[in-house]
Amino acid sequence: MKHLARKRFGQHFLSDSNIIHAIVEAINPQPGDPMVEIGPGLAALTQPLVERLGRLTVIELDRDLAKRLRGHPQLHVIESDVLNVDFSRTDIAPAAPETGATPAVPRKLRVVGNLPYNISTPILFHLLDFVHCIEDQHFMLQKEVIDRMVAPPDSSDFSRLSVMLQWRYAMEDVLFVPPECFDPPPRVNSAVVRMVPLAQPPVLDVALFSEMVQVAFSQRRKLLRHTLGAWLEQKGFAGQFDVQRRAQEVPVEEYVALVQALKG
Q1: pTM recorded for the entire structure
Q2: What is the CATH architecture of 7-197?
Q3: CATH code linked to domain 206-263
Q4: Distance CA 59, CA 79 (A)
Q5: How much of the chain exceeds pLDDT 70, in percent?
Q6: Is 55 in contact with 96 (CB distance < 8 Å)?
């Protein structure tokens, strides 16, 4: 029986074989890699991935799709909302059987997926909590979301999302995916982003950083003295920071230095 895409899950199933091949090549899965796929859907990416990996964990919220996927002997199926999944669990991605000794240190996860566009940002922020146990991430997302993720400072796309991800990841837009590559086609263009956690990220208070960046971008058309300036006064900040700018004009490293100075 054909599975009908469900709007409430934001389902758009990838169907173009050339694009599927290009995405798999960009991910470059290797045998035995501990990989997790979010939202496998009808397994368009799942099958070529598992053929190279030997074993794959998939997270699927749709119970009908999860039931189908459980019939695949090489898949470990987690039927759940991804926002409730603890990616630090050591059993989340059981490795394929291999000969030789078991590694003493668990390998970091590789996370991939065609993310539901209606909750893509919450998923990205959820994964930030587990970045310490992730090797890399490859996601298909709405193109305008990826434009914001990788945007440079002082550009129209530079936003809270840019800052909150760029302080922790090196990111690049690796592949454009037009609507006709899906069934049903979405009303927006899509793209694939590669996210690699920085090996030596800055040390900072993540909760305070998140609060600060949210305040800074709360009224992005106004100068920071109306938003971040008042917030800094409340925090008793006595250092130097130019608040005669708009939020999108401040580079990521300046936001990082500011929150570090607050905790200094």
Answers
A1: 0.90
A2: 3-Layer(aba) Sandwich (3.40)
A3: 1.10.8.100
A4: 6
A5: 91
A6: yes
